[in-house]
Design a protein that fits this description.
Elements lengths: L1 H5 L6 H14 L7 H17 L1 H8 L9 E2 L2 E2 L24 E3 L11 E3 L29 H4 L9 H4 L12
Antiparallel strand pairs: 1-2, 3-4
Length: 173
């Protein structure tokens, strides 16, 4: 293999063509110039992202934490992707349109953020009003009292129902 790559002397035209193709195939997937530089940088970024220490440093950045303050203490929850607030405080962001606070009921007010859906006033699962029941149970038929209080001596017992004689069966044509 390596002696073929040293020089084309003594090779026939077909062998030279095959050698040229072989050299092209060897460098077919290799990157050169700017493409090679960008590929190496991408590989380095991926290596840093997969390291455990780099992953922890990435999640504790200030841009990943919620910007809301509760009693002069900054929220320590992780913010939602592409936002600056966590799920609890997302309604404080005036520019967002995906969440609305739950209205709750008159007795129990609720400000839990709820995703906006097709309904006019979205509610959390606790305050969700269920649609009316579509299944109506059947009415139980009332049994007249005279049937319930019927005497039991009108009924035959199992012993009385047994035939006492065995009668031959006759078939007629």
């Amino acid at each position: 293999g390596s002696s073929l790559l040293t020089g084309p002397e003594g090779l026939m035209a077909k062998e030279r063509e095959n050698l040229k193709r072989l050299k092209c195939l060897r460098r077919y997937r290799q990157r050169y110039g700017v493409e090679a530089l960008l590929h190496r940088q991408l590989k380095e970024r991926r290596m840093l992202a997969t390291d455990g220490a780099a992953q922890q440093a990435h999640t504790t950045r200030s841009s990943q934490r919620c910007l809301a303050f509760v009693d002069d203490v900054r929220c320590s929850n992780q913010s939602l992707p592409m936002t600056r607030h966590c799920l609890t405080h997302i309604c404080q962001d005036t520019n967002q349109t995906l969440f609305k606070p739950c209205q709750g009921s008159e007795e129990v007010p609720c400000n839990k953020p709820v995703p906006v859906s097709l309904s006019e006033n979205p509610c959390c699962p606790l305050h969700l009003r269920l649609p009316p029941q579509m299944y109506v149970p059947e009415q139980v038929l009332a049994v007249p009292e005279e049937l319930e209080a019927a005497p039991t001596d009108l009924y035959l017992s199992a012993a009385e129902l047994q035939p006492t004689e065995s009668l031959p069966l006759e078939f007629s044509d």
